[in-house]
Design brief:
four-stranded mixed β-sheet; 16 strands; mainly beta; nine-stranded antiparallel β-sheet
């Protein structure tokens, strides 16, 4: 009987010990993190006429019901050049006491109000006039060999700001339509129309390879006739003379 009692007492002590250990292992960290709420002031896309001052509207911030605006850091305002047409990104960031950051951004577009002509629309590539390489061969010369198309169509210029256009394929359909690589191999980008109807390349990207054009040069647009011409270089070794006709 005495042995049974001692054995039972031992089991109770072991059970109590295990219960105590389990309690000690439980997490007691009950801290709550409050995230910064960012409130962008002004427009996310802000247009500024060439040569006029840019006054940034800023960004307000709140943390757990309290004003947190003094903690906001703005990057990119100093890069806005009101004397040069183009896109300028500004990012506003605030970090809470626990190290978690929040951010918002705006794009400032500097445009030239003297440009009143429009090249917006859908174009087809002039296959007989558009050249690939330096040997003088045209898209029409190459297309039959690939067996995919004899006419590249659907090249769009979409106005996103006065005189500034998003182009869905600056390569005139070469990789997407003639070579049939797919839309990831369209050279998308932004161009600005100048007062003399030439083009300036603002940015470009071919998503499939993650890079862009080296340059666009010798450009000339005729908004009345609906033609766009330019020469380009890609990857330092691909050269094209693009001729587009509005549909």
């Amino acid at each position: 009987m005495k042995k049974i009692y001692l054995f039972g007492l031992l089991l109770c002590m072991m059970a109590l010990g295990l219960t105590s250990c389990n309690k000690d292992d439980q997490s007691t960290d009950t801290r709550v993190t409050y995230y910064v709420n960012m409130d962008l002031q002004g427009d996310e896309l802000t247009l500024v006429a060439l040569g006029t001052p840019y006054n940034d509207a800023g960004c307000k911030a709140e943390l757990n019901g309290e004003d947190y605006t003094p903690k906001v850091v703005a990057e990119g305002i100093q890069n806005v050049d009101v004397n040069k047409v183009g896109f300028y990104d500004i990012t506003y960031t605030a970090v809470n006491p626990d190290g978690y950051s929040a951010s918002v951004s705006r794009t400032v577009v500097v445009y030239d109000p003297s440009v009143t002509a429009s090249i917006a629309g859908t174009y087809s590539t002039d296959m007989a006039a558009t050249k690939y390489g330096t040997a003088g061969k045209t898209f029409a010369d190459y297309a039959p060999a690939y067996g995919n198309t004899t006419q590249c169509v659907g090249i769009t210029f979409t106005e996103v700001a006065p005189g500034i256009y998003y182009v869905n394929d600056l390569l005139g359909g070469w990789y997407n339509q003639i070579r049939a690589y797919g839309t990831k191999y369209c050279m998308t980008g932004y161009v600005s129309l100048n007062p003399d109807n030439t083009l300036t390349l603002q940015s470009s990207l071919i998503a499939g390879w993650g890079d862009g054009l080296d340059y666009i040069k010798d450009s000339q647009c005729d908004p009345a006739a609906g033609t766009i011409k330019y020469s380009l270089s890609y990857a330092g070794q691909i050269f094209m003379d693009i001729v587009l006709n509005k549909d």
